[in-house]
Description:
This protein has five helices and five strands. The chain has helices at 29-39, 46-52, 57-67, 71-74, 123-136; strands at 3-4, 11-12, 18-20, 105-108, 114-117. Strand 4 (105-108) and strand 5 form a beta hairpin. The radius of gyration is 32 Å and the shape is rod-shaped. 2% of the residues are buried.
Amino acid sequence: MDTIATDGVAGQDTRGETTRARRRKSYTLEEKQRLVAESCEPGASVSLVARRHDINANLLFTWRRQMRPPASVASPLELIPVEVISSVPAAAPTAAGGAEQRGVIEIVLVGGVRVRVDAAVSEAALRRVLSALKAAA
């Protein structure tokens, strides 16, 4: 009777019977791609997919990493032109006290639209304004 040695080496077991070495299962590229795709489904758990197919979860994570597109291909950056002005004209005095405004940022959009904001503007409000201007362009 043939048995499988736990250490993976062929030889004799404790009863003196001949044993065979354990062989690793090899997976085709199609099998790997199918398992990776299954593990990438929304709501899928890598460990559950691995258990269902009787493989180690680390092996599935390795396949996912190997099949992931390079970062430069996955999410290209959208760059916008920026102009740095060396001398800024003095800000007009405010009605509140005649003091200069500090922390004012002027954003010039592609269509020539200028948006001026100071340090007190909320991020959410600025995001809404810029989104609306981008949608209108």
